Amino acid sequence: MKTVASRETRNLLQYPYLLWSSLFIVVPLVLVLWYSFTTPTPTGRYEFSISNYRRFFEPVYLRVMSRSILLAFEATLICLALGYPAAMIMVRLGSKWRNTLLLLLVLPMWINFLLRTYSWMVLLGRQGVLNQLLQWMGLPPQSILYSRGAVLIGMVYNFLPFMILPLYTSLSKIGKEQIEAAEDLGANRFDVFRRVIFPLSLPGILTGTTMVFMPAVSTFVISALLGGGQDMLIGNLIEQQFLSTGDWHFGSALSILMMVIILIAMTVVSLTDKGKTFEEGNLW
Amino acid sequence: MSANGKDLIIRLDKVCMAYGGHQVLFDVSLEVGKREFLTILGPSGCGKTTILRLIGGFETPTAGEIYFEGQPFSSVPPYKRPINTVFQKYSLFSHLNVFENIAFGLRIRKQPEGVIKEKVSRMLELVNLKGFEKRSVHSLSGGQQQRVAIARALVNEPKVLLLDEPLGALDLYLRKEMQLELKNMQTSLGITFIYVTHDQEEALTMSDTVVVMNQGRILQKGTPEEIYNEPKNVFISKFIGESNIFEGVMPQDGEVVFCGKKFPCVDRGFSRDEPVYVLIRPEDVQTVEPQSGLLKGKVQSVVFKGVHYEMIVRENGHQWMIHSTKSLKVGEEIGLYFTPEDIHVMKRNGVAP
Predict the structure, then answer these.
(1) What letters, b where the CB count within 10 A reaches 16 and e where it falls short, cover B88-127?
(2) Do residue A200 and residue B156 have CB atoms under 8 angstroms apart?
(3) What is the mean pLDDT of residues A111-129?
(4) Chain A positions in Cβ-Cβ contact with residue B93 (cut-off 8 Å)
(5) Which of B58, B109, B136 shows the shortest C-beta gap to A186?
(6) How many CA within 13 A on the CB side of residue B349?
(7) A273 in contact with B, Cβ within 8 Å
(8) Quick check: helix, strand or coil at residue B169?
(9) How does DSSP assign B292-340, residue by residue?
(10) Looking at domain B2-234, which CATH architecture does it have?
(11) Which of A173, B14, B156, B226 has CA atoms 20 to 30 A from the CA of A200?
């Protein structure tokens, strides 16, 4: 049976989505914007102010921001370094092994993010599996948990699939023909990688990078659980403003700044791509 | 021109090839001369592309050896072979523009920028794509992409150019034009071309030598005229051109019996009363008055084909296809006439027509 939806039906079908996105995206965004540009007056009213934004430029908060960006950048780089070879191996494997590996890669995502991060506390803790292993080998125990390194491990572990999957997609799209053509024209394996495989996988690299960087730069769970709150990240700072300090105005301003920074980063990324390979496996 | 007595560039010696237990080439031996335009012709799946991939270095033969200028060649990787390929699907680099696609091989060999510029623009001129340097390969038509693929291969000045059905995706007009262009390029550049196609007309038009293949074996090698006029067996005669094939017997050399009559012919070297197949090309049969023909028949159908009329004539239970520039009427009684030279006798070799 073939039914062709009429133009009116199709137009009607978009309303639920419009309603959904205005209720849960536009309205909260407007509220956040409103909070970020207001301060409470002693009389219990609100007045327009940019003091929330100005406060962000105090050294304490700038340090939190740069720490977040640096940590997210490092996590992205490690994910890329680990993910690229992994994706290349997966593309070359037979379909049976490839599907098994893909499944293993996605499997942890069926478990709650929080639980996965908690389990790393068990692994890295003072009496954790890792330290017991070290002691069994006669080595002194290390305090890995509640350190910058633990946060980095948590980020890489949680976000690595977001790097591998787009890389895998774009690498698997490179036909054998283009590689053979390059070999035919005198390219050895290194040339083939540098001049054909790598440039053709750029869309995957860009997508993977944004998909890891974005959640890494704004995370607060990983740093709270594995970092022990020692090195505060921008995500923790925002969480703190809303949940403990109760300064929703400053928290909102931080959130807006966060968004602006991510948007700028993504614009830069998409400009690098020059919009020519957007149709494939791409986020933007 | 056969490769005999000329400088050889490539020689295949009893090459066998199998993919996962499935054999696709059986003891293929082939000699290719310098500056030769050799075409490998055969139906799809006959192993012709495999031969090209073996010469290009993308596959290693399971048995036998390939020699390049006398040296064993099988273990040389593709990037070290002075051979370039124009692939069936062009396989252009989608991330590079036209200029960079053509410059690819030169950049790999680290040629200076000035040389690259000069060579690429000379190539663009040769393939008629001047002004397309900055264009993306996606924006080109099939014919243009095909010419980029040719330029990308030729710019490296290979000793041998392999072409894998490069005109397959083009329309008839463009194909004819490119056939001429390719032939001209080959003559003016003096490069050996090994061309693979399933299009018999293409093979006959361009080649110095045609190699006909079927089911992983070479059936015949010769000039286009030899292949067309003296096909070795029924498969070749049916694959190349239209043909009338009849069962017959050779009572002795210079004499053949078919369609119930004895005819003089020029074929020799058969044993007494050997059963044979007789080939007569449709364009070699002349239509004459019923009483002056060698055989009599009745016109069954007439189809206009542009250059000629294709007519089916029924003669005593045999069907004759005749190509003629003058049209006959359906139902007309006519005589069929041909000379001893028009008759070509083939051994049976167990091949059914």
Answers:
(1) bbbbbbbbbbbbbbbbbbbbbeebeeeebeebbeebbebb
(2) no
(3) 89
(4) 178, 181-182, 196
(5) B109
(6) 12
(7) no
(8) coil
(9) GSSEEEEEEEEEE-SSSEEEEEEETTEEEEEEESS---TT-EEEEE--G
(10) 3-Layer(aba) Sandwich (3.40)
(11) B156
A42: its two tokens: 């002693």
User: Where do runs of H (alpha helix) occur along A107-193?
Assistant: 113-124, 129-136, 148-172, 176-184, 189-192
Q: Is residue A8 part of a domain?
A: no
Across the interface, whether the CB atoms of B94 and A178 are under 8 A apart is answered yes
Taking the CA of residue B34 and the nearest CA in chain A, the distance in Å comes to: 20
Supply the angle between the helices B98-108 and B142-154 in degrees, to the nearest 10: 20
Give the distance from residue A187's alpha carbon to the nearest chain B alpha carbon, in angstroms. 6
A32, A219, A244, B192 from A250: Cα distances, Å: 10, 18, 13, 76
Closest residue of B to A183, CA-based?
B79
Per the domain annotation, does A103 fall within a domain? yes
CB spacing of B153 vs A184 below 8 angstroms: yes
Task: Assign 3-class secondary structure to B92-136.
Answer: CCCCCEHHHHHHHHHHHCCCCHHHHHHHHHHHHHHCCCCCCCCCE
Task: Provide the terminal-to-terminal Cα distance of chain A, rounded to the nearest Å.
Answer: 36
- The answer to whether the Cβ–Cβ distance between A185 and B152 falls below 8 Å is yes
Residue identified by tokens 């948590």 is: A154
Domain boundaries, chain B: 2-234, 242-281+340-353, 286-337
- Give the model confidence (pLDDT) of A42-83 as tens digits: 888 899 999 999 999 999 999 999 999 999 999 999 999 999
Preferred mutation among B59, B85, B94 to probe A, highest tally of A CBs within 10 A: B94
Predicted TM-score (pTM) of this structure: 0.80
Closest Cα partner for B212 from B24, B38, B1? B38
Q: What is the pLDDT of residues B110-149, one digit of tens each?
A: 999 999 999 999 999 888 899 999 999 999 988 899 899 9
Q: Which CATH superfamily is domain B286-337 in?
A: Nucleic acid-binding proteins (2.40.50.140)
Q: Is A186 in Cβ contact with B95 (below 8 Å)?
A: no
What does the alpha-carbon distance between residue A47 and residue A255 come to, in Å, rounded to a whole number? 20
What's the CATH code of the domain at A229? 1.10.3720.10
